[in-house]
Structures are given as structure tokens and as C-alpha cells.
Amino acid sequence: MIDCPEKRRRMVKDQIEERGVTDQRVLKALAKVPRHLFVPEALIDQAYDDSPLVIGHGQTISQPYTVAFMTEALELKGDERVLEIGTGSGYQAAVLAELAQEIFSIERIPELADLARERLADLGYKNVRVKVGDGTLGWEEFAPYGAIMVTASGPEIPEPFIAQLAEGGRLVLPVGDRSSQNMYRVRKKRGELVKDYLGPFRFVELVGEHGYKG
Known about the structure:
Blueprint: H1 5-16, H2 24-32, E1 53-56, E2 59-61, H3 64-73, E3 81-85, H4 91-97, E4 102-107, H5 110-122, E5 128-132, E6 145-150, H6 159-164, E7 165-176, E8 181-189, E9 192-201
Parallel strand pairs: 3-4, 3-6, 4-5, 6-7
Antiparallel strand pairs: 1-2, 7-8, 8-9
Helix pairs in contact: 1-2, 1-3
């Protein structure tokens, strides 16, 4: 299996640290996870570029900075059960698996879910579960979650995410219309939601019962 430690080191230093991500656990995770194994073979040479990449089925793997930014925003300590909406290639799940106790990831496209499971298993990530389904419904069986990450944008915060977020938990997601979205971190405090605005981003659409309509 090929490895690219120097490319990852430069990616972390030039694309992530230089842009303000400071959590050392997050930086170490990004420096460890082999991003090139989560992109199509034809795009391996671009795996560590500062850009999202197409992974098929109209989906993308987010640029490294976005992955790091959202991961840092979750404020993971290591003992959390994390719900991820939008497995994609499995790269974000692998990063989260380095930082939390258990990862539960939902992907609506069976082919992507199968590939992600295979990659994650090959790399020895035993604390990640991937299922095919409507991500906007969450994964009630294993709730509540200390953290929830949504890697697709919707018109509003789906109610199931709020219901499945633990007291004191953090939810990070983009919300907006189809052309532009804003990233938020939502905390649950005494049953109430406290929102932090994290800036403008652009994501693929959140599809499902609580996603965009029409």
C-alpha cells in the first residue's frame, strides 16, 4: 500500500494550520489518515490538493481544510459517540474515528457506502459503522450522540438531529438555500439550542425526508 506522509505533512501545514485550525488532535488525525486512499484512482495525484474532488454519483470529498474546520468545530474529547450524515468516500469518518469512541455514518448511495466500508475495514477502523439510509432521519437506534456532523446542506436543521443530540452535545452543519449556505455549530443546553455562526460554505444537497423539497 502506497503512503504519502510528506504530502500529508505539507497539506496540514500549508492548507490547515496556516488557515487557523489549531486543535493538535485534529491536526494529527489529518496528518495520519491516508486521504489518497479515499479518492478515485484517477485522482490520487490530486488527493492532497486544496480542493474538493469528485467521487462519483454526483458527490464529492470535501477539501482538506473543510474537513479539518468542521472536525475542530465538533470539539471532540475522545469519548463521544458521533453521528455523521453523508459517508461519501469514508474519509471524514476515518478522521472522526481517530478522535472519538464510536462513529455511526449514514450514506444514501449504496455503492458509496460499500466502498467506504471496504476502505475503512482495510485500514483497520473497527469503531465505524456505516449504513445505507435516509440521513435526514438520523440513526435513532444508537442515540443520543455527543456530536453530529452533517456533510451536506439543507434548508433547515432536521428535527431528528435535534432529538438525537445529547444534552451538551454539538451539531455542526451547513444550512441555507441551494446556491449558498452558512455553517453553524449548534449546542444543546438544558434542552435549548445555542447557535454559533461559523461562516459561509458550499456543499452538496441534503437529500431525504427533511432535506430540500422539489
